[in-house]
Design goal:
The complex is a heterodimer of chains A (about 100) and B (about 525).
Chain A lengths: L2 H5 L17 H28 L5 H5 L1 E2 L2 E2 H25 L2
Helix pairs in contact in A: 2-4
Chain B lengths: L3 H21 L6 H6 L6 H12 L2 H14 L4 H25 L4 H9 L3 H33 L4 H51 L4 H7 L12 H6 L3 H11 L16 H14 L4 H4 L8 H32 L1 H9 L3 H6 L1 H50 L5 H25 L5 H14 L1 H10 L5 H23 L4 E2 L2 E2 L5 H18 L6 H8 L5
Antiparallel strand pairs in B: 1-2
The chains are: A mainly alpha (about 100), B mainly alpha (about 525).
């Protein structure tokens, strides 16, 4: 790797002054479980909403709930779950 | 001049962009400053900049227009764009920033070592994606100002392209970041202003009234045959009622299936949108402009919250545009002006609500969306060109200044190429071009990035093969769609290639990985990528 390449874009956390971290399979697994679980939760909501609002299920999408069609609710719920998942993730990764 | 006040507002906005660019020119002397602002951007500024970068012309004009013509199906493009940020945050933001690289190829090479085949395939993907994503921005700008301000399409495209190139060449990432942040706030503010005003003026201040009205409307794309009835109506409400009387069994604006006729098309589109952003270089590069992984993640959260409200609002604005502009939209469709109807619904609604001032503000926001996205794309493309091609393949011992000159010349060349393509593709639908980019990105860089950051067993051969097959498959199905083919190799052609090309790319990546053993410095790289930052 050239000197220029190593300098450019590394930011302060990519320098050589910090000790090289050691791979810890437990830490990696914890990261994987956290990201994987939250991703699965969000994608389940997202794809369920997408399926409900597809052409074959248009009658279900048109069902009225609390004065609004299911199609509108599931879209907003997917957005809301996304924001909640984001918050949970950022809180969890700050925990030791 | 057709709209002098709107022109004045646009001119002031352009002056602001150029002023920031001029002020930032002193901070582009090193490659680090030019590409990633030396990694010194705050997370708040970066969050707003990502919002401005991501909310492109397709989002601001395209989604509102798609909803205005087809109803709820058009909203899924927006929800998909939003979902992509969650995927990006959970899978890539932190590990990528921790790895300290500023192209996807760099991240992969950090783990597997230098490979010219990888750099070439990654650079090709970056340039293909960047140019194809740049074209709809320029095409959108050309049509916008041709229609709103009476400017000639050709002149507008050239002027927009030159402005974008100038902003990047002289302002670098620092200037681009400030411009994108301001533009992100402007976009968000303009959309919210339109929503508030239209809700008060036309729906008695009740936003749910928009959805109730939508349940009665036959989407304009289905009402084209009733254009004579629409022409004879006194106002929009009367036109909507007349069409519903004429077509009592027709779908409403809240009925799925108007734009996406079956489940396969729906899933293919939402799949591409959810994973496409993982492979978009102009978004990934933004994570390198901040200090550490925590700042990258906090910036992403700000973008997610801003974008969530933006997408929730655009749904209502699109339906409101359908209601208020109903006769205009049906007539435009009947006259074969679908491009105008689908891209100009939001500006037309704004002019109707607030005259030239509102029109000018929305035009500025739309232009801001195009310029901020385009400058982000240009800077990532020049980074890949200079870094992957020049510094690592053509001239490995080149100096920093030499690379910077190459990057700036590259920016000029890419701008000219994009201008030429935008002139050639002036009649293409911008939403199709953007969706195609997401499908290609989701089939190439996205699987490679996930495997590099999360799969210890992954091999470089698997990653290169996955990118190559994903690129070929996604391009094949995309251009088959452009050509109007219904079936190729016995497989139905969908609105987006993702349903075929993502699984194929993943399958090849996994299969080749299990046939090979070059996993690189897996433990060392993963330890760096997943280390905790305080």
């Amino acid at each position: 790797m050239s000197k220029n390449e190593s300098e450019a874009g590394r930011g302060s956390d990519g320098g050589s002054s910090e000790p090289q971290p050691v791979f810890d399979s437990a830490v990696f697994r914890k990261d994987l479980i956290l990201s994987g679980t939250l991703l699965a939760l969000f994608l389940a909501t997202y794809f369920t909403a997408a399926i409900i609002t597809s052409a074959p299920l248009k009658d279900l999408a048109a069902t009225m709930v609390l004065g609004l069609p299911v199609a509108a609710w599931v879209g907003w719920i997917a957005i809301g779950i996304g924001v909640v998942v984001t918050r949970i993730y950022l809180v969890k990764i700050r925990q030791p | 001049m057709e709209n002098p006040i709107a022109v004045l507002i646009v001119a002031l906005s352009l002056a602001l962009v150029l002023g920031i660019t001029f002020h930032s020119r002193r901070y582009t002397k090193t490659t680090s400053e030019f590409y990633v602002a030396g990694g010194k951007i705050s997370w708040k500024l970066n969050g707003f900049a990502m919002l401005g970068d991501y909310a492109s012309a397709a989002t601001f004009l395209g989604i509102a227009g798609a909803i205005a013509l087809t109803g709820i199906d058009g909203w899924w493009i927006g929800i998909g764009f939003f979902a992509a940020w969650i995927v990006l945050l959970l899978l890539a933001a932190g590990p990528l920033k921790n790895s300290g690289k500023f192209t996807v190829a760099d991240a992969v090479i950090a783990r597997f070592g230098k490979r010219s085949d990888l750099r070439i395939v990654a650079m090709l993907c970056t340039l293909v994606l960047g140019i194809l994503y740049l074209v709809p921005q320029m095409v959108g700008a050309g049509h916008l100002f041709k229609l709103l301000l009476g400017w000639d399409y050709l002149i507008t495209v050239i002027a927009t392209g030159v402005l974008m190139g100038t902003a990047v060449i002289f302002g670098g990432m620092r200037g681009t970041t400030y411009n994108q942040a301001i533009q992100g706030v402007m976009l968000w503010g303009a959309l919210m202003a339109v929503l508030v005003v239209v809700t008060i003026v036309h729906f008695g201040g009740n936003p749910f009234g928009i959805i109730r009205a939508a349940q009665e409307m036959v989407p304009p794309v289905l009402a084209v045959g009733a254009v004579e009835v629409v022409k004879g109506a006194e106002n929009a409400a009367a036109a909507i009622a007349s069409v519903r009387t004429l077509m009592p069994e027709a779908a409403s604006a809240m009925t799925p299936g108007v734009a996406l006729p079956n489940l396969a098309n729906q899933i293919s589109l939402v799949l591409a949108l959810a994973f496409g952003t993982l492979g978009l270089p102009h978004i990934l590069i933004r994570f390198y402009t901040v200090r550490d992984a925590r700042a990258a993640q906090k910036g992403a959260e700000l973008t997610i919250v801003g974008y969530a409200t933006f997408i929730a609002a655009v749904f209502l604005v699109g339906l409101a545009a359908m209601y208020v502009l109903y006769p205009t939209l049906v007539q435009l469709l009947a006259e074969g002006e679908r491009g105008t109807a689908t891209n100009m619904a939001l500006p037309m609604l704004s002019e109707m609500l607030g005259g030239q001032v509102f029109l000018g503000i929305v035009a500025v926001a739309a232009m801001a969306a195009m310029i901020s996205t385009s400058t982000g794309l240009l800077i990532s493309m020049t980074g890949s060109l200079a870094h992957d091609l020049y510094a690592n393949i053509l001239k490995p011992k080149s100096g920093e200044h030499e690379q910077l000159i190459f990057a700036k010349v590259g920016a000029s060349g890419l701008t000219l190429l994009a201008i030429a393509l935008s002139i050639w593709l002036r009649d293409q639908n911008v939403a199709i071009l953007v969706g195609m980019c997401f499908g290609i990105a989701a089939s190439t860089f996205a699987p490679a990035l996930i495997a590099t950051l999360w799969w210890k067993r992954a091999t470089i051969q698997g990653i290169v093969a996955g990118i190559g097959v994903g690129l070929l498959a996604s391009l094949l199905f995309t251009f088959a769609n452009f050509a109007g083919a219904k079936v190729i190799f016995g497989i139905p052609v969908l609105i987006n290639p993702a349903l075929y090309s993502i699984p194929l790319a993943l399958l090849v990546l996994i299969a080749v990985t299990y046939l090979t053993k070059t996993s690189g410095n897996a433990e060392e790289f993963l330890a760096t990528a997943h280390r905790k930052t305080s």
